[in-house]
Design a protein that fits this description.
Elements lengths: L1 H24 L7 H23 L3 H30 L6 H20 L7 E7 L5 E8 L3 H25 L2 H27 L6 H18 L3 H14 L3 E5 L5 E4 L1 H6 L4 H11 L7 E10 L2 E13 L5 E10 L1 H15 L9 H14 L5 E8 L2 H8 L1 H19 L4 E6 L2 E7 L5 H10 L13 E7 L7 H13 L9 E3 L2 H22 L3 E10 L4 E12 L3 E3 L5 H7 L2 H21 L6 E6 L3 H4 L2 H12 L6 E6 H6 L1 H14 L2 E7 L6 H6 L4 E4 L2 H4 L4 H17 L3 E5 L4 H10 L3 E3 L7 E2 H7 L8
Parallel strand pairs: 11-12, 14-16, 16-17, 17-18, 18-19, 19-20, 20-21
Antiparallel strand pairs: 1-2, 3-4, 3-7, 5-6, 6-7, 8-10, 8-11, 9-10, 13-14, 13-21, 13-22, 14-15
The protein binds ligand C2E and calcium ion (2 copies).
Ligand C2E binds next to strand 14, helix 19 and strand 18.
């Protein structure tokens, strides 16, 4: 018996240590490993100690070995307890419990060591087995042995309790795994109790410790239950967000989860057949494609994966489909793309995307001719300033709405910047009338204002398709510039010469500084003739005497200077020239003669007109009544709130204010009602442009009469014929200016030949 037991004990120890070494070689880095190693290590040691104690021939050695064996057992059970805690996933023990167990273990260890010298805990005896082989065994236990037993049973109780709790809480498929450990533990306890109760010579529970240690190691580290795995896989697939369909070698559905069934409308076989016919290329081993589908009213986007399955010998086993719902990602992507390509305010394409889509459209239809149509709101800044940003935004939204209704699905359109929008329209579909009708309808900004919105439209009929879209838009915008200041013209078409004029414009701008420094701007004067024939003064008109191009008329540079802001510098220069002349006249005793200067509308924004002009007359000691100020009707009426008081101020100072170009713009009798000026200067174009001469003459007659009644003098400019002189004189016109009498001339020539000369009128 002795030799069988000893051999079995050694073999068990080898088995347990084998497990320990295996685990060290192939660690799995999981939390149950440390207590498991402790359990295996001490169980192996306990087995070795017990067997060796049986073999020893020295009583003292038997005491020592059995003593250490008992301590090792404390660690075995403690390792088991800690292992169960981790294995069941319960919380680690409270520190107080750990301390209590620790103190017990120390007390037990001290007692066991003392026992080596004085047998206070247990005694050892040498006995013989049935076959006469003698060995040492633990023969009796004293009352102090209870410390050891209490420790062991307390730990066993705790671990059994943990296991029972876990078994009760766990799903069915897991109960077994905990139950196995519980049953093995119970067997150990029972064997041990039998050993204690009946005083068997050999502690057979030791073998069970080996079995428990090995089983725990095997079940926790090596064994994966097939059924559990199948079940887990089944539930994993069933609960997956993605749809999964598995087909066998004959393309019969083996399994499809719920998501897949919903996607296929519960017609899996039919759907799979369609995929094989329409989507998946023959012989493809894996393949992806995108699909979308309306489910419960909303559009959902999917990415579908097809893949063949092969075994280790590369034999075809079947295939599977994964249906991945990417609605969220797609929507996020779409909304990001939308934000990157659309204008935040109006929701229509932004500039970059308009360019891109237009480029695409033109490239895709090479036989089709297109027009680029750009729009621009006249004085949009004024809308923002006067009515606030919100109204400005409302206006932009309205323009975007018009474009949307005009373009529908067919034309590309977008917002370029600020108040600029663009359309790309097939040439034969471009209909000026239709666009005008829509645009004019929104002329009124709000019901309670008289402010009219003017929208200009520039059209570029694409001739050079290779030109960048931004250049095409530039050309349409260039066309708008030709009508920028006009209220009557709404649509302008790009012509090749516009580009030349743009180049010319750049040249004019670049030459300005040089011209002003080189005194290339000359003052010409056109005489003004009173009804009695006397020339009392004239209008100062600028001429650019260019060193290469000769004399350039103001029409070619004034509008450019007005756009760039150079006009204020040119005008101040011209005003100074006029004042210098008037100073010389005054010194020569010519105090009754006057010069009339032009003030551009832009001067009012760029300069302090009042300060500049009064400064000049004071500096040159000129009487203000000798300086007439020509201000256009448009300049006054565009901004009457500031212009009317300014005119009053200038008149109070002593200047005579002329309303220039009356009748050339949107002249209205309202102007006369509000405007108190000294002289009304009627534009002759007013007369010549009108077809019904009779009616125009009548209106002219009435305006002159009205001006006179308002105690204003009347000048008519552009007088070219004797007939005009005659009827204007008859209507009561006071002063004439025009080619009939004289063209503008250098100021010296005017002074020498015309000043105070008397014409026969
Ligand atoms: P405006 O102030 O209306 O000047 C009158 C224009 O009519 C002058 O053209 C003059 O030459 C022209 N004119 C006079 N009599 C007749 C006529 O019988 N028949 C015809 N067909 N034309 C006649 P000009 O000198 O070419 O000036 C054109 C415009 O340039 C002026 O129109 C004025 O608005 C602007 N301008 C000229 N000089 C200056 C200046 O120094 N400063 C500013 N701000 N503008 C100026
Ligand atoms: Ca003038
Ligand atoms: Ca004029």
């Amino acid at each position: 018996m002795k030799w069988v037991s000893v051999t079995l004990l050694y073999l068990s120890a080898v088995l347990v240590f084998g497990c320990l070494i295996y685990n060290f070689r192939k660690p799995r880095q999981i939390s149950i490993e440390p207590p498991l190693r402790m359990l295996l290590g001490f169980a192996g040691a306990a087995l070795l100690l017990n067997a060796t104690a049986m073999l020893t021939t020295s009583l003292q050695m038997a005491y020592v070995l059995f003593g250490i064996y008992h301590i090792a057992m404390d660690f075995v059970v403690n390792g088991m307890m800690c292992f169960v805690r981790r294995y069941t996933g319960l919380r680690v023990y409270h520190p107080k419990i750990q301390t209590a167990f620790g103190l017990f273990a120390i007390a037990d260890a001290v007692l066991m060591m003392m026992n080596c010298f004085v047998p206070v805990v247990f005694t050892c005896d040498r006995i013989a087995d049935r076959f006469g082989a003698s060995f040492y065994h633990v023969s009796s236990m004293s009352a102090l042995y209870i410390v050891h037993m209490l420790l062991i049973y307390a730990m066993v109780f705790v671990l059994v309790w943990d296991l029972i709790r876990k078994i009760l809480q766990s799903p069915k498929i897991y109960k077994l795994k905990y139950a196995v450990i519980l049953i093995l533990d119970c067997i150990v306890v029972i064997c041990h109790t039998i050993y204690l109760q009946f005083g068997t010579k050999i502690d057979y529970s030791l073998f069970w410790y080996a079995v428990v240690a090995f089983s725990i190691f095997y079940f926790s580290m090596i064994y994966i239950p097939r059924g559990l795995m199948d079940k887990l896989l089944y539930f994993t697939i069933s609960n997956m967000q993605d749809g999964i369909i598995c087909l066998d070698i004959e393309n019969k559905c083996v399994h499809a989860n719920r998501t897949a069934k919903i996607y296929c409308d519960f017609e899996i076989d039919q759907q799979v057949e369609t995929w094989f016919m329409e989507e998946i290329p023959l012989d493809a081993e894996d393949y992806y494609w995108d699909a979308k589908r309306r489910i419960s009213g909303g559009m959902r986007y999917y990415r579908i994966q097809y893949q063949k399955i092969f075994d280790i010998q590369s034999k075809y086993l079947g295939c599977f489909f994964i249906i991945q719902d990417c609605t969220k990602e797609t929507e996020r992507f779409e909304s990001e793309k939308y934000r990157a390509t659309h204008d935040a305010l109006t929701g229509i394409y932004n500039k970059e995307y308009f360019y891109e889509m237009t480029r695409e459209q033109i490239a895709q239809n090479p036989a089709q001719n297109y027009c680029i149509v750009c729009t621009d709101v006249k004085n949009f800044k004024l809308v923002n300033d006067m009515f606030g940003i919100q109204t400005g935004d409302k206006l932009l939204l309205r323009i975007a709405g018009i474009l949307r209704s005009l373009a529908g699905e067919r034309w590309v359109y977008g917002r370029l910047t600020g108040d600029r929008f663009a359309l790309c329209v097939p040439e034969e579909e471009f209909n000026e009338e239709q666009i005008l009708r829509k645009i004019v309808r929104m002329a009124k900004l709000t019901e309670d204002t008289v402010f009219k919105v003017h929208i200009h439209i520039g059209v570029y009929k694409i001739e050079d398709k290779k030109l960048g879209i931004s250049m095409m838009c530039d050309r349409a915008n260039l066309a708008i510039r030709t009508i920028k200041d006009s209220y009557q013209n709404i649509v302008a078409y790009y012509k090749e010469n516009l580009r030349e004029s743009k180049i010319n414009e750049q040249k004019v701008i670049s030459e300005f500084e040089e011209a002003i420094r080189g005194r290339q701007f000359a003052a010409y004067v056109q005489p003004q003739i009173a009804v009695n024939g006397k020339v009392r003064g004239g209008e100062v008109l600028v001429r650019w005497i260019h060193p290469e191009r000769g004399m350039i008329p103001p029409g070619e540079f004034i509008p450019i200077f007005e756009q760039t802001g150079f006009i204020s510098r040119l005008d101040s220069y011209m005003w100074e020239v006029a004042c210098m002349r008037l100073q010389r006249w005054k010194n020569a005793g010519l105090t009754e003669n006057y010069l009339s200067i032009n003030i551009s509308q832009k001067d009012f924004y760029l300069l302090d007109v009042y300060k500049t002009i009064t400064g000049l007359v004071e500096y040159y000691g000129v009487h203000p009544k000798n300086l007439h100020l020509e201000i256009t009707e448009t300049a006054v009426m565009n901004n009457p709130q500031t212009q009317l008081p300014l005119i009053a101020k200038l008149r109070n100072y002593g200047f005579l204010v002329e309303i220039d170009d009356f009748g050339s713009g949107y002249s209205s009798l309202n102007t006369l009602k509000d405007l108190q000026a000294d002289i009304l200067k009627i534009d002759m174009g007013f007369l010549s442009r009108t077809a019904h001469q009779g009616r125009s003459k009548l209106i002219l007659q009435m305006i002159i009469a009205l001006a006179k009644a308002l105690r204003m003098e009347v000048i008519t400019e552009g007088v070219e014929t004797q007939d005009q002189v005659d009827f204007l004189k008859a209507y009561g016109c006071d002063i004439f200016q025009g080619y009939y009498f004289a063209k503008p001339m250098p100021i010296m020539e005017f002074e020498m030949q015309y000043l105070n000369r008397v014409f026969r009128v």
